Amino acid sequence: MQDNSNEGDISDRLSPIERKIVPFLSLSFDEILSKSGLDEVSIIRGLRLLENKGLLKLVINKREAVELGTNGIYYKKNHLPERQLLSFLEKNGHCTLEEAQKSSKLSENEFKVSLGILKGKAFITLSNGKISLNATKEEIIKKSLEEQFIDSLPLYIDSLSPEQKFAFDNLKKRKDIIIVQTKSSIKINLTESGKNISGKVFKSDLIEELTPDMIKNWSKQKKFRKYDMSAQVPRLIGGRRHFMNEAIERGKKIWLEMGFKEMSGNKAVTSFWNFDALFTAQDHPVREMQDTFFIKGVNGKLPDDKELVSSVKSSHETGVHGSKGWQYEWKKSEAERVVLRTHTTCLSAQTLASLRKMKDKRGKFFAIGKCFRNETVDWSHGFEFNQAEGIVIDPKANFRNLLGYLREFFKKMGFSEVKFVPSFFPYTEPSVEVYGYNNIKKKWMEIGGAGILRPEVTVPLLGEYIPVLAWGPGFDRAVLEQYKIADLREMYENDLKDIREKKIIL
Amino acid sequence: MASVKFPRKEFEKHMKLNPEIEKKISMFGTNLESISENEIELEILPNRPDLLSLEGFMRSFKAFIGKHSEIKYRIKANEKNKFVKVENSVSSVRPYTVCAIVKKLSFDEDKIKGIIDLQEKLHSTLGRNRKKIAIGIYPLDKISFPIKFEARKPEEIRFKPLEYDREMSGREILQKHPTGKEFAHLLQGELYPVFVDSKENILSMPPIINSNETGRVTTSTKEVFVECSGSDLNSLKKTLNIIVTTLADMGGEINAVEVRYDKEKIITPNLSPDKIKVSLENINSLLGIELSEKELSKLLPKMGHEYSKGNVSVPAWRTDILHEVDIIEDVAIAYGYENIVPEIPQISTIGEESEMSIFKKTLTHLLVGLGFDEISSFHLVKPDEIALAGIPEKYRLELENSKTEYKFLRPNLMIAAMRTFAGNKDNEYPQRIFEMGTVFTPEESEKSGIKETENLVIACSPSNFTEIKQVLDYILKITGLEYTLKESNSPGFIDGRTASIIVGKKSIGYFGEMHPETLRNWNIKMPISALEISLDDLYSLIKNQPK
User: Fold this and answer.
1) What pLDDT does A182 receive?
2) Do A299 and A205 share a structural domain?
């Protein structure tokens, strides 16, 4: 609201609608409606604008009003059925029920109701199928409470007299005679400055919308109407990225800044890449239908590199590089089964294998991608999730370096304080779980797993043992936190309102 | 991962809990989940099943914090007549068993619960839900040696299973007993394995259930017979070691048992340590620290190992030592992760985004600039959606086992766009959306049998042919590609208002105005026009343009 007590200033600011209303400001809302020539919506908008200028105060009361229903409107014109029956009886005296119904032209239902009412008032008696009229002339002429009530509508429920209340209750039980509607009554309370300008007529030679023509013919005498800075404007809808992809973009930036190269690859892969190459024994529970999506009717094939395949096989069966291996019979058919990847680590495995023939195998790689698990969907779980993953291949890399990378990485993710705790992952050794201190929740939270890939993994893939540092920060959970999303399902709902209005994260 | 709960009272008989001990518990790799008045809950990682019992945990943890008591277990020699005969009939069903006898026990309720918990946790972790390992423990006074491990036809098996007071046949147990039903899938052959004593009493039918007569340990039990049966002899031996050392820590005396296979006899359990070689150099270079030989010889005993000049003796209950790196991790834990100073090496590498990522990002900026909202949808679609999309059977890729209503890999992105419009009827129009993502089609020549393509879908509602053609034209012009349109009959679109998009001689996609029947099928009330193109094709065409 602005303080615009100065009349001249106010006249500079009045919009065309306001100008049309001001001359009638001392009148009631309904009078303004009939005199200003404006419709109800425009008047309310104009009054709101005037209210913003501190000229008046609108008091809007919601009240329940009784109005005529469709039958009510008809009966008001043609009398209530009981009146119609009474008039008929007055003319015809005694008659049978059948005659009365036929001749009075009432529907069966109207007739029944009317009989009941007249009986209740002791105006008539029924015997042997005959009606006899007992009411006096005065009684007949006098308008009933219901009739009076119908004549006086509309009325507000909270202002009914006891008689009206009685009639209201009776009529309410009957079909469509009256209806109750919530009505807003609008009262205009003028402020001092409002009273000052009320009734005045303001000239309207102020410029509203600037046009090219005005620019061409500009003269200094012309004046603009001053706008209300706080007036509401219609909301814009712009194009927007999905918030999950915004988050992925931010995630990628961290890896790129740290000098990592992006890996990409298929989402449907053979178990060979998803499990076997990562030293996951073929009887491991994660390879059961319970946890992993298998795809029907497709034939997976192992990589063409025979040496690679046989090295993975012996890694499982007898071990490589001094390992004992898992000591079981490795089956090709099991490795050929096609799955939806359960982690992006299968991309790391493929990347390592692609370096097999190279002389200099050093490198830093990352991926952020969709992974899958066979789960039902609830607020915290889904069958799809994003995983981030990075690897560093370097003959000189060590566990201390891993912790160094992790500290730096998570600092960029917003965790200034981290701690490292022993952990276990099937394809890394040593393994570590990273905890980050959440400043808002004031507690330590698991933020990612990491480790150095086992020789049983790297030797078959790279053809020699080179330490490979690997880590996979939790991704979706962090995004939920950033956007304050309570239910994971929101991520895939594609509610356009939600996508359009998501707050930006820097 | 398994979480275990120990009675706090029992735990504190070993050591009082305090903040320092609590921190040490976590830094030992056993995350402290919670402590209450009565219980302490730990998370035990899958590589350390030997920590699943309070006794096993205390044995290792005391060494870790330096409350070291020398751990030596004696095994009394096997008695001649107390042997177990393994019949050839089990070789195709459940080929191995290893056994032991433990005497001089005095159980209380806590200890019985502890040993049952351990047994169950071992079943579900190391035992792969009893498939790989099943454990049976029997009061010794209820059974008579020698014992046979043999396989029989289900009708020839009759005994009272635990919790039942009447005899059942092998098949009946699988059909009627709750545990039988739960694990019935593990016995699907014609023969079921059983342990039978010399009086022809059936002791158990592994991996399902013990006999009610002979398979119940109580507080009055002083001596037990333990067997582990399964498919992998090595894991069975380790499991037996974990059980008997836990019983020994409860005060028991371990006695060996001879197990007679057809061709050889083995004496179990065997608690002699495994030997593995390590090099100080490897340890230091992998961890990035500088330990001396002397320091190493102090660290390894903290993890229960013995060390002497490059040779490590690994306790017989450890299941997770396959390679030198496993010892190196133990060294790191003993050294303390918190004592290793993080250090990032100063080597420079250049970060690089994939070409496809860059291409997609560029297009995204264009589309967002045009006022399109990006959607992000599941890679899986529902059966009715794939049917509505008119995808022929041979192009469908179905999951074998989805637990949700989403059962197919998505063949296109149009389905996602339609689903989005159907779900956004209450939101403000116009709705202009796009998505980029992977779609899947069967392709024999691929290693996975599946071709994956990056696609782009753009769709507007309410909208018409002209609007979507404008968008298409804008994108293709901006990429510098010349294109032609060939009227086609894409399913779901209005005939005469849909076309293939041809660049060179290749069709890279289609666009058009959606047919009202399609819209009604999706329960959509507003007109839609849409296009879908292959980003892989588009990208390679742009790359191969003459300069």
Assistant:
1) 85
2) no
Whether residue A264 and residue B444 make contact (CB cut-off 8 A), yes or no, is no
Number of A–B residue contacts, CB under 8 Å: 269
Interface of A with B in 416-455 (CB under 8 A): 419-424, 429-432, 452, 454-455
For B184, phi then psi, to 5°, come to: -55, -30
Q: Are strands A468-473 and A443-453 parallel, antiparallel or unpaired?
A: antiparallel
- Please count the structural domains in chain A: 3
- Flag if B31 and A421 touch (Cβ within 8 Å): yes
8 Å CB contact of A293 and B401: yes
Residue ranges in chain B whose pLDDT is less than 70: 1, 69-70, 547
Give the integer Cα–Cα distance in Å for B353 and B364: 16
- The pLDDT assigned to A6 comes to 62
User: Would you say residue A386 lies in a domain?
Assistant: yes
SS (H, E, C) B498-514: EEEEEECCEEEEEEEEE
Report ipTM for this prediction. Answer: 0.91
Q: What contacts A159, CB < 8 A, 6 or more positions away?
A: none
Residues A304 and A420 in one domain: yes
* Same domain, residue pair A262 and A403: yes
Instruction: Tell me which of 2.60.40.3410, 2.40.160.10, 3.30.930.10, 3.50.50.60 is the CATH number of domain B355-543.
Output: 3.30.930.10
Q: Which of residues 239-298 of A touch B (CB under 8 A)?
A: 239-242, 244-245, 249, 252, 255-264, 266-270, 283, 285, 289, 293-298
Residues of chain A whose pLDDT is less than 70?
1-8
Distance from CA of A349 to the nearest CA of B (A): 16
Measured between beta carbons, the chain B residues lying within 8 angstroms of A397 are 345
What is the CATH classification number for the domain harbouring A75? 1.10.10.10
Integer Cα distance of A461 and A468 in angstroms? 11
What pLDDT, on a 0 to 100 scale, did the predictor assign at position B69? 65
The pLDDT score that the predictor gives to residue B547 is 67
- Smallest Cα distance from A343 to chain B, Å: 15
Helices assigned H by DSSP within B480-546:
516-521, 535-543
Q: Among A496, A497, A499, which would you mutate to test the B interface (most chain B Cβ atoms within 10 Å of its Cβ)? A: A496
Contact check, Cβ <8 Å, B349/A432:
no
Please name the residues in contact with A244: beta carbons below 8 A apart, sequence gap of 6 or more. Answer: A386, A479, A491, B376
Q: Is residue A501 part of a domain?
A: no
Domain of residue A172 covers 68-182
State whether residue A223 sits within 8 Å of chain B by CB: no
453-492 of A, contacting B, C-beta below 8 A? 454-456, 467, 491-492
What pLDDT score does B536 carry?
97
What does the domain layout of chain B look like in residue ranges?
A: 2-64, 75-268, 274-337, 355-543
Which class in CATH covers the domain with range B274-337? alpha beta
Residues A356 and A439 in one domain: yes
- What pLDDT does residue A4 have? 45
Q: CB of A500 within 8 A of CB of A237?
A: yes
